[in-house]
Design brief:
The protein has about 270 residues and is mostly helical. The chain has 2 domains: about 150 residues, no CATH class; about 70 residues, no CATH class. The protein has a two-stranded antiparallel ribbon with strand order 1-2. The protein is globular. The mean pLDDT is about 80.
Amino acid sequence: MSQFHRAAAGIDHLERLGRGDSPVHGLNTGVKAAAAVLFLALVISFPSKNVSGLVGFALYPAFMMALSGTPYRPLLARLVFAMPFALFAGLSNLFFMRGAAFTLGGFTVSAGLVSFASIMLKTFLCVFATLILISTTPFTELCALLTGPRGLGILGLQVVLSYRYVSVLLDEAQSMRTAYLLRAPSEKAVRMRDMGSFLGQLLLRSFDRAGRVYYAMKCRGFCGVYHPRERRPLRRADFIFLFGISSALFTLRFFNISLFLGKLIKR
């Protein structure tokens, strides 16, 4: 399987996860999105020196995955792509923040190391929470949330169309790769010296394909407005879930459960 097929299969796998059947999948999309946004805001609000307080927030993704039956391997595989950016951002703190933060077992821990751990943990939690939202919500419902009356309007429509066009672009790239390998059977991939021409042709073909897709949409009545299917109504379970998650997250934000458990263990 080529890298283009693997990328397309990964997108399809997330969409299939979003169409699952569990208590989390059955919740209203707005409620799940509100819980995810609250989680992100509270995680980001932690100061860089408070790493122990962030540890308790790992309970949220663990709870959501257990309740929805979402497998952890596909999410971890996608998490890998985001972690290098946080890694390079955090490494600079090791050189610019050399002051001592605290001493642990005779070893002095620098402020840069604490900040580095905070950045990595925040990235892990935020990206993981976002992936859980995507993997437990059908993409059509997320589109409706973006393009609805209180959504992002034309910006949300651009996100929807761009996402849908990714699979078309991957198909074009795969077709060009197949044609290239048929003309160069001794090669296993596109050579670097041919990569510029390959990408240029892919750009031109994608423009042409996008035009044909647009004309096909116009023939089917598209007028610049996204018409999603009927949304899930708000139910009592949605309010109970949102209240429970919000209460738990605010408790974790203002009560350091890690330090509390550490004191209990010492006793």
